[in-house]
Amino acid sequence: MLTKLSPTLKTFMTLGYGFLYLPILTLIIFSFNSSRQVTVWQGFSTKWYRSLLQDEVLIKSAWVSLQVATFSASAAVVFGTLAAVVLVRLGRFKGRSFFGILTTAPLVMPEVITGLALLLLFVGLEQIIGWPKGRGILTITIAHITLCMTYVTILVRGRLSDMDRSLEEAALDLGARPLKVFMAITLPLISPALISGWLLAFALSLDDLVIASFVAGPGSSTLPMVIFSSIRFGISPQINALATIIITGVAIGVMVAGWLIHRKKY
Amino acid sequence: MAQKQKRIELQPWQDPKAKPYIHLEGVSKEFRGTLAVDDVTLSIFQGEFFSLLGPSGCGKTTILRMLAGLEMPTTGKIYIDGVDVTHRPAYDRPVNMMFQSYALFPHMTVEQNVAFGLKQERIPKLEIQERVKQALKLVQMDKLGTRQPHQLSGGQRQRVALARSLVKRPKLLLLDEPLAALDKRLREQTQFELVSIQEEVGITFILVTHDQEEAMTMSSRLGIMDHGRMRQIGTPNEIYEYPHSEYVADFIGSINKFEGRVVEDETDHILVESEEAGCELYVSHSADVPVGSQVKVAIRPEKIMIAMTPPEQKRNATKGIVKDIGYLGDVSIYHVELKSGKIVLATQPNIVRLAERPVTWDDQVYLFWRAENSIVLTA
Amino acid sequence: MNKVLRKVQSSFTSPFWAIIVPYGWLLLFFLIPFLIVLKISFSDLKLGLPPYSPLTEWVEQGVLVIKLNFTNYSFIGTDALYLFTYLDSLIIAIIGTLGCLCIGYPMAYGIAKTDPPLRIVLLMMVILPFWTSFLLRVYAWIGILSPHGFLNTALIKIGLITTPLTLIDTTFATILGIIYCYLPFMILPLFASLEKIDHSLVEAAYDLGARPFQAFLRVIWPLSMPGVIAGSMLVLIPAVGEFVIPELLGGSQTLMIGKVIWNEFFTNRDWPVASALAVLMLIFLIIPIAIFQRLQERQVRFLDAD
Q1: What is the domain partition of chain C in residue ranges?
Q2: Choosing among A164, A172, A174, A194, which should be mutated to test the B contact, i.e. which has the most B CBs within 10 A?
Q3: Are residues B120 and B261 in the same domain?
Q4: What is the mean pLDDT of chain B?
Q5: pLDDT band at C2 (very low <50, low <70, confident <90, very high)
Q6: Is the same domain home to B258 and B231?
Q7: CB atoms C23 and A5 under 8 Å
Q8: Which helix (H) or strand (E) holds C236?
Q9: CB-side exposure of B360: number of CA atoms within 13 Å?
């Protein structure tokens, strides 16, 4: 195990993981602080969690975020999987490499640019065809689908390329039509990538501040937007409590997903 | 007379009236500008065990995939049982394939794997169960039906794959290097099992392999391929004893070749003068070669006899120095250098034990063979 | 005849729609928006919504006239502040990337050298922060770096300093934030390429007389280059356009282009200038993005093996 590593490397890795986790740890510890002063410990309390439950703005925005994340993750999985199947299985077609570039580009595009560009598109579309009417949950969802499907495409593409192609050919050979082959063979075999793709898309959507800020309208603030406007004015234990809930939720989610995916032997 | 009749039944390719079951007519396949299969015409008869043999990249697998419907030929036609299936997709052909990787669906049990093909035909559940059971029994896997593929050994997977492709009772079963993933012992054992299963079910088999031994032991006939072309089709015996070309002669087993010039061309024999061999070569069957032309005469190592004293015959007899002896247990291979510098291989069964063998390194030996055992290679 | 029928038939089955749906989506919601940004960067500021004048106009006799207006660009060009902002963004992002590389490489190397059961745990521990809220991870640093934050409190307690250091609202804090937030993006591709290196290559180098450091420099480092480049691009490109980190940790003294675009857009409501800034930033980033894309394509093409 770790014995192979030199002491220097071991020390370094310990420091590295400390660097990654200490800040998160401080967030969690001080969410249970009874003092309003975040950095001074005054005793254990769960009052910030209770006050969180009474914050209507926060809860409403969390609801918006969950709706957007659920819907955009699901759509991103469908579109991203289609894109990956096209790239891996359909062979050469005109514009394939352009399509390949298009599917990975949102990954590296600075969010400020993507957000601005999408907003200008929505404004322009509304002017020309009258859709989408105003901006809100719909426009945020569209923006998030675009961003998230890239990640899904990359994950599914990797899984598809690793998959033994003769499995699909065998199914064809045994008399299954292409659509049936996809449903009965391909889909179950890439399901781990679909699960992790959905989760990743969900997390990304839930986490996005910049793009949502551009394309959101009045009354459709997402959770990160509300958090952002409150921490702009400094730290508050209530946000710490919220952070603890989110981090715990994500950690459990990732671990369950990891267990689900690794449980399958193939 | 009765005997002859029987022979034709067993060897339908010798009967000009027999109708081929599988027929490829001038089939070519092009992949991005290169011809993987080049104008192949081939007839295979019902119940045959036919092998396609050749080095990797010779186009044999492509032919198999075109028969399965996984590739479409660029030109040419494919008939199965008289029906043109050239453009039929894989799922619409009475053909099943056993893949090199076995391609067992990892998310299904052995039984589900075998039942998959039957389910596509919408066969009643009870019948599916019955047929799956039968198929698994045939390959002796009936006890492991509920296992998942990753819980099986290589040999067991191979059996499941075979059962899965047989259970649909196809008109034609294609096997893509079915034994390549098995170790040598298991492979030899499985070869015979495959043949007996084929005889039992009576389905026409086409096997693709690069292993000549495998092709020789299992097939009724085989086709030797090279660079997309069919070089020779024949029974294992024909291919081994009467190769048409140097390529086929070299591909199957090892063979000694002597270059020479034809001096006599009669109906019952030809005579070749060869400096390389150091003697006149007399071949007791004619080939269409005019006097004066350059040819190669070939002789298999096991057909050469070795003696310490000169043989009576003057033709097909030469001498040389033993340079090396390869001991293989059952036989030994003698590397004999002739005066011309040519190394000739001669195989002798080890009837006596090694220590008592009369011929040893640096001995001068005489090599000779019977006129009917050598062949003239024209291509 | 049959052939035609089959063609018509096949055009209605999945492959056609499988291409059209994702392709169309990306064209409409990713490519076209950039063309609009480009277009609006050439138009005038106008009061009202949307706050820009249309680029095309139908003048008398129905002639379509396209007015290209370079004022936004010349405005940006004449104001040295914008130029410095671009340069600062680039410098901050580069320092942040190098920081990620210095911390990430040994970590990725260590993970790759660890055996599977523990390796998966270590890898998961790198991925986990990447899944948790970006915003909240930046927020954590406010608590650490602020004048009465953990770091200053600790340093005063030890007696190293007597008055709190100014840590928050500095360029240093911004760089620290970038390193912290983007570290997983660096480690993961590095790990992927380090994991692939056959250990016998290193052994062969030892066998041929290389000392450990030489073996690293001549064998491991060059072979991990794809990971180094991919990781660096994955950090550098978004870091240049970063908004949240400089906004929360950088204070008013740190000007980064993402923040400036945000302010032009939301505070000044000058959409044309914001668009022009975005176009310039894209031009800035086109080389790193192209490098990343090529690397990505090569890797994936190798995977697809079609």
Answers
A1: 75-304
A2: A174
A3: no
A4: 89
A5: low
A6: no
A7: no
A8: helix C225-240
A9: 6
What is the per-residue pLDDT for B356? 63
Kindly report the nearest CA distance between residue C61 and chain A, in angstroms. 22
Whether residues A103 and C22 touch (CB distance < 8 A) is answered with yes
Which tokens in the block code for residue B370?
Answer: 């019977």
**B265: alpha, beta or left, given left = phi > 0 and alpha = psi -120 to 50?**
beta
Same domain for B299 and B188, yes or no, is: no
pLDDT in tens, B7-22: 555 677 887 788 899 9
In chain C, whose CA is at the least distance from the CA of A204?
A: C131
Q: Are C31 and C62 in contact (CB under 8 A)?
A: no
Contact A168, A88 (CB under 8 A): no
Q: Give dist(CA C84, CA C253) in Å, integer.
A: 12
Q: Rounded to whole angstroms, how far apart are CA atoms A60 and A136?
A: 14
| C167 strand-pairing partners | none
As a whole number of angstroms, the distance between CA B34 and CA A40 comes to: 75
Pick among B80, B97, B147, B172 to test the A interface (most A CBs inside 10 A) = B97
- Domains of chain A plus CATH, in order, are 47-263 (1.10.3720.10)
| Same domain, yes or no: B138 and B208 | yes
Query: What percentage of chain C exceeds 70 in pLDDT?
Result: 84
Could you tell me if the ipTM is greater than 0.90?
Answer: no
At C299, the amino acid letter reads Q
Say yes or no: B142 and B61 in one domain: yes
Domain housing B98? 18-248
What is the pTM for the complete model shown? 0.83
Give the CATH architecture of domain C75-304. Orthogonal Bundle (1.10)
Q: From B100, which residue of chain A is nearest by alpha-carbon distance?
A: A166
Nearest to A27 among C15, C136, C304 (CB): C136
- Other Cβ atoms within 10 Å of B377 Cβ, number: 19
- Mutation to test the A interface, candidates B70, B157, B173, most A Cβ within 10 Å: B70
Same domain, B236 and B259: no
- CA separation for the pair C84, A6 (Å, rounded): 44
CATH of the domain at B22: 3.40.50.300
Residues B65 and B164 in one domain: yes
C50–A110 C-beta distance less than 8 A: no
Same domain, B155 and B69: yes
Whether B69 contacts chain A with CB within 8 A: yes
